[in-house]
């Protein structure tokens, strides 16, 4: 395995240790109740489902069926759970909490809310916000096993600043480009906003798993009939999902729909992945010039696509 993989594993394990310690999940009894953590989870499922069968609880919690069966037996012996035959399937036993069971769940719920409330209230508001945002993200990540899919949308408030910020961060990390690159991107998005013409310009944000993972802009060029493709980028962890191709195809299709005859773009040779996308879409290099940009010795390229063909 790679060192990055080892680092990722260590990060998640460290989170698990911190989380279980801070919430007291390793205590013999959960939240000062007479229940272990697994028993408390079974009790929760019984309280929040209508006449479940044991198999439902097994699936919901991912526990061993024998473990759930033993827990239900203990609950029944303690007068917390009652069973009855299912009218639809005589071999299935429908489960429900007794009055004592509902009282036990109510006490557990009260204690759990109180302990978690104390934990978050002790945090500074900045850290509380970070914690809750991270908790929502973690919950969303593990909610299903469906791979994330990218979609395109139009611009929303905050997107222009995010495009400039993310491109500044990514290109500095990957290519060592200085702040003048971020400033250039900021100038481009500001100009796009100032001069925006819905009959000539457009922009797309690629989104996956609820966050921005890329962008592309279409703007009117300096010569009649020509448009420019600008500010294409894809987040590093979204590469390989077809995001770049999706963005380029959307930009080319829109340029055609608006009646442009040519679509031009500027790039530098070091951006090899983007250049492959342009080549695949039919763009051709029409100009190449060595230059000094962003604190680096680079080679400028102008690519063009004939939209009238």
TrEMBL record:
Coiled coil: none annotated. The keyword Iron does not apply. It comes from the Bacteria. GO terms for molecular function: DNA-binding transcription factor activity; N-acetyltransferase activity. Residues 1-140 form the HTH marR-type domain. It holds the Pfam family Acetyltransf_1. CDD domains: NAT_SF. Residues 150-308 form the N-acetyltransferase domain. Keywords: Transferase. PANTHER family: GNAT FAMILY N-ACETYLTRANSFERASE, LD18367P. This is MarR family transcriptional regulator. It comes from Caulobacter zeae.
């Amino acid at each position: 395995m790679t060192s990055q993989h080892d680092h990722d594993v260590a990060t998640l394990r460290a989170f698990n240790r911190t989380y279980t310690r801070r919430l007291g999940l390793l205590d013999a009894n959960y939240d000062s109740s007479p229940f272990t953590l697994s028993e408390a989870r079974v009790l929760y499922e019984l309280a929040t489902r209508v006449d479940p069968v044991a198999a439902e609880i097994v699936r919901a919690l991912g526990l061993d069926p024998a473990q759930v069966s033993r827990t239900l037996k203990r609950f029944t012996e303690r007068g917390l759970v009652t069973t009855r035959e299912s009218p639809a399937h005589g071999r299935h036993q429908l489960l429900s909490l007794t009055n004592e069971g509902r009282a036990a769940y109510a006490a557990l719920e009260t204690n759990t809310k109180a302990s978690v409330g104390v934990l978050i209230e002790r945090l500074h508001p900045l850290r509380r916000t970070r914690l809750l945002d991270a908790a929502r993200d973690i919950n969303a990540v593990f909610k299903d096993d469906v791979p994330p899919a990218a979609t395109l949308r139009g611009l929303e408030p905050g997107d222009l600043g995010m495009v400039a910020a993310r491109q500044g961060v990514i290109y500095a990390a990957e290519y060592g480009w200085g702040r003048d690159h971020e400033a250039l991107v900021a100038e481009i998005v500001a100009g796009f906003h100032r001069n925006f013409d819905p009959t000539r310009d457009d922009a797309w944000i690629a989104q996956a798993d609820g966050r921005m993972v890329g962008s592309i802009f279409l703007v009117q060029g300096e010569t009649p009939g020509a448009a420019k493709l600008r500010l294409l980028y894809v987040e590093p962890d979204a590469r390989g999902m077809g995001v770049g191709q999706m963005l380029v195809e959307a930009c080319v299709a829109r340029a055609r729909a608006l009646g442009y005859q040519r679509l031009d773009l500027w790039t530098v040779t070091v951006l090899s992945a983007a250049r492959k996308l342009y080549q695949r879409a039919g763009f051709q290099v029409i100009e190449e010039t060595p230059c000094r940009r962003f604190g680096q010795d680079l080679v400028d390229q102008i690519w063009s696509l004939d939209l009238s063909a």
